[in-house]
Amino acid sequence: MIVSWGRPLSFNSGNSSASTIITASSWTECVTSCWNSLYCVLAWSSIDSCVLYDFGTVLEGEKLDSSSNSKVAMKIGSTGSMCPSLSFELTSVEVVINDPLLEYTEFRYSITLASGRWSFLYNVTRSCPPTWTKFRRPDTEFCLKIIGSTDIFFTQVQAQVLCINSKGVLAGLESEEERNFATEEAHVINIQDTYLGNMFYISGDRKTTCSTWAQVQTPECAGLNAFSHSDKYLSTKSGYKWAPNNPDGVTVNGTTASCMILWSQKTETTVRGLVDDAPCGHKKTNYAAVRGGLCGRVAGI
User: Fold this and answer.
1) Count of Cβ atoms closer than 10 Å to residue 22 Cβ
2) I need a labelling partner for 178 at 20 to 30 A (CA). Which of 118, 185, 224, 249 fits?
3) How many C-beta neighbours within 10 Å does residue 137 have?
């Protein structure tokens, strides 16, 4: 922490609503409270008050003199037991906050002093675990990975367990970019298999209200409308591209397919990268084997 006479001046969204007023018996206690709070960037004390400002809250501070009776303490590092020397003057510093609960998120901020004012700039970077690939979706950054094995025939439940064990869910295809990625990842597994084709479960469960022949003839149950999703970050679903004559999992005789798979083919391209509805317990045919699933997780966690 670096202490100076001064005060916070401007705040994110034009207010200081994200600040926390605490009861502190002394300035030392006020500063210590900020130091011990992971996201606290600045502590301010004027008269008898102690206010803590978290990451992203304060945008600017004003340097004052002792007559102001107003002090600020700015966190300029999260490790070390040595305080700066008394002659230290903060001009520019960059600090990284690492939250152990958000393993793949980096919170970074900088403090710069110019013309008697401190400027605070913030940046949040969310990444994916190793071997996962990040995509930008309308609502979040999302990590994808095909998980599977050529040694196992998977049901949908088994594919879901793969994803859950990787802190994710069975993922869908938000965009053409995601579909192309998943197709290539699936092909890497497929070329190692004795089966000419592979199938990988993706997000999609047939709605009970779309399970009869009469129901699937209605607009409410047409195509993708017939399916709900474990992947709650799907928006446009433009990566879903049906294989020819699909979905075909509901006939006049009843429902035959309530889950969704992504096709891979070793050499042919007739259905490679296309989506099909399949039985949820589907494991293999003479031509193709179900070898896993497409898993997804929010970036940064």
Assistant:
1) 15
2) 249
3) 19
Q: Is the pTM of this model over 0.90?
A: no
* Percent of the chain's residues with pLDDT above 90: 83
| pLDDT number for residue 89 | 62
- Report CA 115 to chain centroid distance, whole Å: 39
Q: Which residues of 75-101 are buried (b: 16+ CB within 10 A; e: fewer)?
A: bbeeeeeeeeeeeeebeeeebebeeee
Q: pLDDT tens, 61-105?
A: 999 998 998 999 999 875 555 555 444 566 889 999 999 999 999
Listing DSSP states for the chain in one string gives: -EEEEEEEEEEGGGS-TT-EEE--SSHHHHHHHHHHSTTEEEEEEETTEEEEEETTTEEEEEE--GGG-EEEEE---SS-SPPPPTT---SEEEEEEE-TTSTTEEEEEEEEEETTEEEEEEEEEE---TT-EEEE-SSSEEEEEEEE-TT-PPPHHHHHHHHHHTT-EE----SHHHHHHHHHHHHHHHTTSSSSEEEEEEEEEE-GGG-STTGGGSGGGSGGGGEE-S-TT-SS-TT--BPTT----EETTEE---EEEEEEESS--SSTT-EEEE-TT--B-SSEEEEEEEEEEETT-
Task: Give the chain's domains with CATH numbers.
Answer: 2-126 (no CATH), 133-298 (3.10.100.10)
pLDDT tens column, 189-224: 999 999 999 999 999 999 999 999 999 999 999 999
